[in-house]
Every structure is written in structure tokens, then in C-alpha cells.
Amino acid sequence: MRPPPLKHASKYGVITLRFRKRSRTLTYAQKGGNQSTADCNGVSLDAHIHALYGLTLQRPGKNVLMIGCGGGTLGTMLARAGRQVSIVEIDPVSITLAKRYFGLPRKIACHVGDGLAFMQKTRRRFDILIIDAFTGENIPAHMKGAAFFAAVGRSLRKNGVALVNVCLERKSDPIADRIAAGFKERGWPVRLLDSPGGERNAIVLAGQVGNLRRPKLLIPPQAGAELTGKELRAMRFRRRRAISNADRKRFTSPVPAGRAAPALKR
């Protein structure tokens, strides 16, 4: 891992890469938030990335579609584990930086474009779909509602699994529960993996998720492994919280009459 220039221009917001010489770690930040932190081998220091990695490896399928790239640490880790990874990222600068400085393997198929549009048009069907494009209340309007859930359904194989990472901004942040409720209303089995505290990451699991276990730290990073492991152990499955009708309507639109969104079989 070589020290990169600090600032990188992007029409989606300046990307800042910070290299820490002592720990030999590299952090990718944009719009005031850290999106990726990796050690010198491209392994993530973020607990939620290790959670997504551990959950994915519990499934037998090899084909993984990821919406959102950042530093690409999860894609790198999954590709090294033998998964066939495809990444969709709207910001081409993100993909360039992930390959140049974070070690994203060249063999990973990277597509520049909108995640929803890709899911709606692709002819491929995937075993695992990982969506990492939600930050608190700042969810793109087109990435929620009936069109989003239908696109997720058509992108997955019959027994596939969707994993949605959500950045929550406060203890009572309802976004993860809203997304879970949207899947549940369309007949998907749903679970929630969450952490205690205020600002944090939660993962919504939908599809064939009943037998998935709490993930463990399978690849300790070269720096910060103790903290990463502690934060990962703090993530636990919890019950969905009730969502008011007003809150539900604000987040999702109803399924169009006569055209139900595809639901995975139990």
C-alpha cells in the first residue's frame, strides 16, 4: 500500500484518502464520513464489513453483486475467498481509487452506473446481493419503495439473500426497521443484525436467512484487530421495531395493484 494524494475530485463530493504511516492503514472519506478503512493488505478494519463478509461466506452460492464500492475492501476480501464478485458504483472515481490504492482485484467486474437501474436491467441472477448505499435519512428517493424491492427480487436466484448495510445516526434511527418492514410486507423472511449505541451500522438480512449465525472475525486485520473484533461481537440479531403507518408511507410506496414485487420462497 503506497501513500496516495490526499484529495481527489469527484462530482459526488471530494474524496479524502488518509494514510497513517505508523499503522499502515488507509481511510477513504467522503462528505464528512469514513466509508472504508483498510490495512496494508486491503483487509477492512470496519466491523460491519467483517459482518457482511462472514454472513456471505455462510451461504453456498458463489455469485455476489455489490451495490456501492467505497474503498472496495469487502469486494477484495470476498474475491480472495473465491467468490465471483460484481460491483456497481455510480462514482467512477471511487472504482479508480479502490483499484489503485486499496488493492481491489482487477478480476472483479466493475460497472459504473446507478444501482437500481443495473438491478432492473441485468440478465444475471446472483446468490448474494449486498447493498451499501444507505446513510441514515439520506436514502435516494429511487432506492426505496416498490421499484427497489422488485429490483432486488429479480436480481437474486430463487434461494438468494439480500444484505443491506445501513448507517444509523442515532439510537432511535428507524431506517433499518423501515427497510426490514418493506421486505416483510412483500413476503420476505427478514432478520436484523444491529449494534448498541447511537451512530452505528445495522444490517438488514432478507431471503433465505433463517439459519445464518452471528458472524465471527475470520480475517483479523493487521492493525486494530482487537477493536474490530470487539465491535463485531457487539453486533447481535434483534427483533424488528414497530413502524407507524405514517412512517411507513414516508419511506415506501405501495406495491402497484395487480403486480406484486417478486418474493423469495422460504
Number of domains: 1
Apparent shape: globular
Annotated CATH topology: Rossmann fold
| Sheet with most strands: strand arrangement | 7-6-5-8-9-11-10-12
* Low-confidence sequence ranges: 254-266
Classified by CATH, the class is Alpha Beta
Tally of strands: 12
- Assign the structural class, choosing from mainly alpha, mainly beta, alpha/beta, alpha+beta, or little secondary structure: alpha/beta
Strand and helix order: EEEEHEHEHEHEHEHEEHEH
Helix content: 25-40%
Q: How much of the sequence is in beta strands?
A: 25-35%
Largest sheet features = 8 strands, mixed
Question: How would you characterize the overall build of this protein?
Answer:
There is one protein chain. The chain has eight helices and twelve strands. The protein has a single domain, classed as Rossmann fold, CATH 3.40.50.150. The C terminus is likely disordered. It is globular, with a radius of gyration of 18 Å. It is α/β, with parallel strands linked by helices and 266 residues long. Helix 5 links the parallel strand 8 and strand 9.
Please outline the helices and strands.
Blueprint: E1 7-8, E2 15-20, E3 25-30, E4 33-38, H1 47-57, E5 63-67, H2 73-80, E6 84-89, H3 92-101, E7 109-112, H4 115-121, E8 126-135, H5 146-155, E9 156-168, H6 175-185, E10 190-194, E11 200-207, H7 225-234, E12 236-238, H8 245-251
Parallel strand pairs: 5-6, 5-8, 6-7, 8-9
Antiparallel strand pairs: 1-2, 2-3, 3-4, 9-11, 10-11, 10-12
Helix pairs in contact: 1-2, 1-7, 4-5
